[in-house]
Specification:
By secondary structure, this protein is an all-alpha fold. The chain has one domain. About 60% of the residues lie in helices and about 0% in strands. The chain is built from 21 helices and no strands. α12 runs antiparallel to α13, α17 packs antiparallel against α18 and α18 runs antiparallel to α21. The protein is globular, with a radius of gyration of 23 Å.
């Protein structure tokens, strides 16, 4: 089979029924010769503008808390579903008092800041930019606003990188830009920093910059632990394709970047540096996790949940590795990245509402279909509301205003099932590559860097062949109905 090459970007409105139906609100699908706003309004710029608009709407959603609810007891910030860690940690993690993260001990049981080094630096920079005068309430407000501005830059970086990762499918990034869970959770915590670095890494990998990919994975891992999982994905794919030089460059780049960031703190503030890792190990089961659901339903405290979560994560990753080596075609990098990060979250002791941010860019690249994406987002939005109303119920005393425990358990189950649903359709695409919308034009892995078009050298099936040899005949169909092109 001959891979179809086409300069024109793939238009979701001409290959996705939900996108086509939704486009009727703005005049219907693009015509074959339509142009978008001249030379300036490119797909990438449209995606960025939409993402920033949604981010701004997410900030507006936090206005009740910004004005008063963060400062008048716990219940109001939950009933208005506008909670954020940022203003609270400004005070309780010592930034308001000028304490230096990792070096200075905190009052209370926490002892040191429980975040990775690069996130701690991000928090510290924001505190330096926060005015030190005025009431504490005003300073907390300004700290949240400064962080929101910095996180908005991260959101723009993520939107640009996702839109450019697949050269012919920039419009898939609208899934990210319009994701309601992205807007609602973007300023709960500092996850967008690691997300931006991971998005840059994915873009660099798609361009064949393997060492630079590794550097950004290392930096992202210095901000949040989960990006290191991408190296595991790369290992299995390189095992199947025999691309060990690429994996070696990525691994060395990641290790070097991580050490550059972490080593100074490890050498001079060891107790503060290790707090993130000891806290992660000792943390009990918490909100949103399958373990909390089991514990609440059974009455068992699950004191061994750390072991259970670790074992389940390893089993799921082993299953994904087996899937990779037995699939009829080598899975796309984004597909496996989504599955591995989803497995890590699903098996974790905690599934905080902002963890959905880790998956949204990967989902847009792994399964760019609006119906499945919106089903998943519906489950996450329901959980976003469920956790805050449940916390409102637990903090309202005898009034019992909010969502009782049974309702919260249902919300947990729905958001876990929604994530599992999206995982299932990605696995189906891997097992039935003709169902993969990205490959319908005869492509192999357009955002897969050096793996794109590589021949298999090791599999556990009869699929050791060049990727285009496995392309089904119907893949030559061009989605906007003009017939095959070569």
């Amino acid at each position: 089979m001959t891979k179809v090459h086409e300069d024109r970007p793939v238009l979701p409105t001409q290959q996705d029924e939900v996108a086509a139906a939704g486009s009727e609100l703005i005049g219907g699908p693009f015509g074959r010769h339509a142009r978008l706003g001249g030379h300036w309004l490119t797909p990438v710029r449209v995606v960025v503008l939409v993402a920033l608009g949604m981010f701004a709407l997410g900030m507006v959603q936090k206005v009740p808390c910004y004005d008063w609810a963060w400062f008048r007891g716990a219940g109001s910030q939950y009933t208005h579903a506008c909670y954020s860690d940022i203003p609270h940690l400004y005070v309780v993690r010592g930034f308001a008092d000028g304490l230096t993260p990792y070096w200075d001990r905190l009052p209370g049981d926490m002892e040191y800041l429980e975040y990775p080094v690069l996130t701690g630096l991000f928090m510290q920079i924001a505190s330096w930019m926060t005015p030190g005068s005025g009431s504490m309430q005003h300073r907390e407000q300004m700290y949240w606003m400064v962080n929101a501005g910095m996180l908005m830059v991260c959101a723009a970086v993520i939107a640009v990188c996702v839109a450019r990762t697949h050269r012919r499918r920039p419009w898939d990034a609208l899934l990210l830009a319009l994701a309601p869970a992205f807007a609602l959770t973007a300023t709960i915590n500092w996850d967008l920093l690691a997300l931006a670095l991971t998005a840059v890494a994915m873009l660099m990998w798609s361009r064949g910059r393997t060492v630079v990919f590794g550097v950004f994975v290392g930096l992202a891992t210095a901000a949040k632990l989960y990006p290191v999982l991408l190296l595991g994905v790369l290992f299995v794919l390189c095992l199947r394709a025999g691309k060990w030089r690429a994996f070696g460059g990525a691994a060395v780049g990641a290790a070097g970047a991580w050490l550059v960031v972490n080593l100074p703190v490890m050498l001079f503030a060891w107790d503060g540096w290790k707090k993130f890792y000891t806290f992660s190990q000792e943390r009990p089961i918490d909100f949103g996790s399958v373990w909390l659901l089991i514990s609440q339903r059974s009455g068992n405290p699950l004191t061994g949940a750390n072991t259970y979560a670790t074992v389940l994560t390893l089993l799921l990753c082993a299953g994904i590795a087996l899937l990779t080596l037995k699939a009829p075609r080598r899975p796309r990098f984004a597909q496996l990245a989504f599955l591995v990060v989803a497995a890590f979250i699903l098996a974790n002791k905690v599934y905080s509402p902002q963890y959905v941010l880790w998956l949204i860019p990967l989902a847009a690249l792994a399964r760019p279909r609006w119906r499945d994406f919106l089903i998943w987002q519906a489950g996450e939005v329901l959980y976003f509301l469920g956790i805050w109303f449940y916390l409102a119920y637990t903090t309202s005393g005898d009034k019992h205003q909010g969502l009782p425990v049974e309702g919260y358990q249902l919300a947990i189950a729905l958001h876990l099932l929604a994530t599992l649903y999206l995982c299932a359709v990605v696995v189906r695409d891997i097992l039935l590559p003709e169902r993969d919308v990205v490959r319908r034009d005869g492509s192999d892995d357009p955002s897969g860097g050096v793996l794109d078009g590589a021949r298999d050298v090791f599999t556990l099936s009869n699929a050791a062949r060049a990727p285009h040899d496995a392309t089904p005949p119907e893949a030559q169909r061009v989605e906007w109905g003009t017939g095959p092109r070569h």
